[in-house]
């Protein structure tokens, strides 16, 4: 296999992939904030939540749904700040994955990544981070 990367570039490619994977896992997991409500453990992230309160109209009480799931719609995310965080974090993870996968392809394909492309990729990673 021919490579367009130096040894430092290969290390950068693999570390980029590991960091992008960790960022995406953190984005998709609902454990950003942990706490308790109605004596139950609750957690939520930007677009997922676990153990959340729901109003039971039959009994006129609030009950806890003890399962994890995403919000039903983008507007169901609790606040504008969390919606912005969801979009920005999702875009950042997408950019990080794009650069990491391109760098990994550079390990296998000769003349795919030049010095200029590497610098631009580093800038994109900075923005994605």
UniProtKB/TrEMBL annotation:
InterPro entries: LHFPL (IPR019372). Keywords: Membrane, Signal, Transmembrane, Transmembrane helix. It is a multi-pass membrane protein. GO terms for cellular component: membrane. Pfam families: L_HMGIC_fpl (PF10242). It is found in: Membrane. Residues 1-21 form the signal peptide. It comes from the Eukaryota. The chain crosses the membrane at residues 87-109. This is LHPL6 protein. The gene is Lhfpl6.
């Amino acid at each position: 296999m021919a490579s367009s990367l130096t040894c430092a570039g290969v290390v950068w490619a693999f570390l980029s992939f590991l960091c992008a994977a960790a960022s995406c896992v953190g984005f998709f997991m609902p454990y950003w904030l942990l706490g308790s409500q109605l004596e139950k453990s609750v957690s939520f992230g930007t677009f997922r939540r676990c153990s959340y309160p729901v109003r039971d109209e039959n009994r006129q009480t609030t009950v806890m749904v003890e399962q994890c799931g995403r919000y039903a719609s983008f507007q169901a995310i609790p606040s504008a700040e969390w919606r912005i965080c969801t979009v920005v974090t999702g875009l950042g993870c997408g950019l990080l994955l794009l650069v990491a996968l391109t760098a990994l392809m550079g390990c296998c394909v000769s003349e795919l990544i030049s010095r200029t492309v590497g610098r631009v990729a580093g800038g994109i990673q900075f923005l994605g981070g």
